[in-house]
Task: inverse folding
């Protein structure tokens, strides 16, 4: 039987688990910080501005659905991490996992930013201004920075 | 300790009362369950579905790769 030292190490399961966990946690940062604490936008605030109590509560429903979905994303990532840590050919590398987490958060910002903000226009990052573009681009730029940092960490991760 | 607890309780009881909005709920439900409900569900879940698909595909990449590249080895 091959020992872990003689197996060809593969990092993709650990990176994939990190990506889903990072995307889920990044989704919670968006939902908790930007939707609830700062109240910059809601899930459908581009189509249904929360300017009455009823409209705010309707937006709250769609925010809840979004939170439920990112919870599922996080749970699947956790299950993948558990599965990956049980594989002898997957390295136990904190840098690789942290890189995956940053990649996931960055991917969340880029995918959600392009689909929801730019293509579908469901909402924008900061609704309370006539020019939505600067905040939307800032959100995408943060995503790109996180992607680069995550990629660098994954590359620097060494099997232990 | 008990006096502090009772004082706090009394001060809460003496505060303004908050009521739920009784007429809001039917309007809120009407605002959620519109003919565009299914479309809205799909649109809200679309980015999450994309990310989930990416993550799952990468997790099983070692098993999926032979299927994707199988045709390149055969002429």
Result:
């Amino acid at each position: 039987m091959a020992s872990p030292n003689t197996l060809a190490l593969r990092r993709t399961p650990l990176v994939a688990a990190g990506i889903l966990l990072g995307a889920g946690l990044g989704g919670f940062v968006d939902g908790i910080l930007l939707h609830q604490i700062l109240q910059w936008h809601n899930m459908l605030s581009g189509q249904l501005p929360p300017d009455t109590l009823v409209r705010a509560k309707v937006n709250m429903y769609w925010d809840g659905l979004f939170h439920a979905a990112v919870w599922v994303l996080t749970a699947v990532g956790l299950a993948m991490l558990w599965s990956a840590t049980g594989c002898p050919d997957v390295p136990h590398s904190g840098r690789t996992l942290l890189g995956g987490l940053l990649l996931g958060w960055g991917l969340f910002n880029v995918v959600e930013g392009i689909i929801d903000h730019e293509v579908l226009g469901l909402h924008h990052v900061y609704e309370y201004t006539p020019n939505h573009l600067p905040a939307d681009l800032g959100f995408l730029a943060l995503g790109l920075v996180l992607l680069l940092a995550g990629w660098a960490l994954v590359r620097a991760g060494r099997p232990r | 300790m008990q006096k502090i607890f009772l004082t706090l309780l009394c001060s809460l009881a003496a505060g303004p009362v908050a009521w739920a909005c009784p007429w809001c709920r039917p309007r809120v439900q009407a605002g959620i369950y519109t003919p565009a409900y299914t479309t809205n569900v799909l649109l809200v879940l679309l980015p999450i579905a994309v990310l989930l698909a990416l993550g799952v595909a990468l997790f099983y990449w070692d098993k999926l790769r032979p299927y994707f590249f199988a045709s390149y080895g055969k002429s």
About this structure: DSSP finds four helices and no strands in chain A.
